[in-house]
């Protein structure tokens, strides 16, 4: 028997005894049990408990209401991972995946991409992140999106931010955004605004009914709006989920 094995066996036995004083396992059984069960399960629990209760904020509002701009500031100030559903979909187009052409057409028309696609992109981003605090920007955009998220990710948002912005201001901002987006033109913006009223707003109402919505007047400078957002996250950062 090698000295290292004896050492590991007795080390694991002493740890195991402390955790399970009644146990009758011998040295090698201790070692096996300790390294396969106790070390592995404690590592797994750490990951799982983090995954099982991530802090999720949905960030909603019409096109150009400032969701992305404010999310960048919240992420910087409070250590959140910013997941923009639109950005995930645009990356999917660029990756030449099987759904790229369909996603491009859908975005061009200002319509909503099938829920399974968007939710799985978000799920993968959450699963591969080391973080446990997420801003999900621009999602859910419909009841169907919301239900698919609950089913596939198995979570609900802790809070929902809603940036309330007049239509003229949203149109003005989108048309001067200058990011080369295929949907930032007046025809598509009109379609997106219709979708916003018919499909996105009912989501805000649904979460209002659950007392989760924080409505923020999105008119003002970026910093003025962030000063209204900041206290919400400061409060949540101190509530033990941080
Ligand atoms: N408070 C604000 N006042 C003026 N322009 C803003 C404000 N917030 C964001 N913008 C600008 O408006 C455009 C849309 O903002 P963005 O954050 O991309 O909105 P959304 O993600 O809701 O579509 C961007 O060009 C951004 O720089
Ligand atoms: O959950 C989502 C998020 C976005 N989109 C599509 O992506 C476009 C752009 O979304 P993004 O959030 O980037 O736009 P924003 O509101 O920030 O201008 C939308 O109009 C939809 O066509 C979608 O189908 N599902
Ligand atoms: Mg955006």
From TrEMBL:
Cofactor: Mg(2+)
Positions bound to CMP: 145
Record InterPro entries: Adenylat/UMP-CMP_kin (IPR000850), Adenylat_kinase_CS (IPR033690), P-loop_NTPase (IPR027417), UMP_CMP_kinase (IPR006266)
Organism of provenance: Dioscorea zingiberensis
Function in brief: Catalyzes the phosphorylation of pyrimidine nucleoside monophosphates at the expense of ATP. Plays an important role in de novo pyrimidine nucleotide biosynthesis. Has preference for UMP and CMP as phosphate acceptors.
Molecular function in Gene Ontology: ATP binding; nucleobase-containing compound kinase activity; phosphotransferase activity, phosphate group as acceptor
GO BP annotation list: 'de novo' pyrimidine nucleobase biosynthetic process; nucleoside monophosphate metabolic process; pyrimidine nucleotide biosynthetic process
Residue numbers binding ATP: 64-69, 177, 220
NCBIfam families (UniProt xref): UMP_CMP_kin_fam
Keyword Cytoplasm carried by entry: yes
Subunit structure and binding partners: Monomer.
Keywords annotated in UniProt: ATP-binding, Cytoplasm, Kinase, Nucleotide-binding, Nucleus, Pyrimidine biosynthesis, Transferase
Residue numbers binding a ribonucleoside 5'-phosphate: 90, 111-113, 138-141, 181, 192
Annotated domain remarks: Consists of three domains, a large central CORE domain and two small peripheral domains, NMPbind and LID, which undergo movements during catalysis. The LID domain closes over the site of phosphoryl transfer upon ATP binding. Assembling and dissambling the active center during each catalytic cycle provides an effective means to prevent ATP hydrolysis.
Family affiliation: Belongs to the adenylate kinase family. UMP-CMP kinase subfamily.
Protein name per Swiss-Prot or TrEMBL: UMP-CMP kinase
Annotated EC: 2.7.4.14
Annotated cofactor note: Binds 1 Mg(2+) ion per monomer.
Reactions the enzyme catalyzes: CMP + ATP = CDP + ADP; UMP + ATP = UDP + ADP; dCMP + ATP = dCDP + ADP
